[in-house]
Amino acid sequence: MIAKQRKKPVELIAYELLSKRKQLSEEEKKRHRSVAKGFEGEVMFDTYLDKLAGEHIILRDVLIHHNKYCQIDTILLKNGKIFLFEIKNFIGEYYWDDDSLFMLNQVEIDNPLVQRDRAHSILRRLLQSLEIKLPLFSYLIFVNPDCSVFQAPLDKQIILPTQMNRFIKHFPITTNITSQEKEAAEKLVANHIENSPFNPFPSYQYDQLEKGIPCYHCGEMATYPQKQGIECRLCGHFEKGSEAIMLICSEFQFLFPERKITSTSIYDWGGRMISRRRIFRILQQYYEKKGEHRCHFFE
Ligand SMILES: [Zn+2]
Question: Which of 17, 24, 68, 265 is the most exposed place for a label (fewest CB within 10 A)?
Answer without folding.
Answer: 68
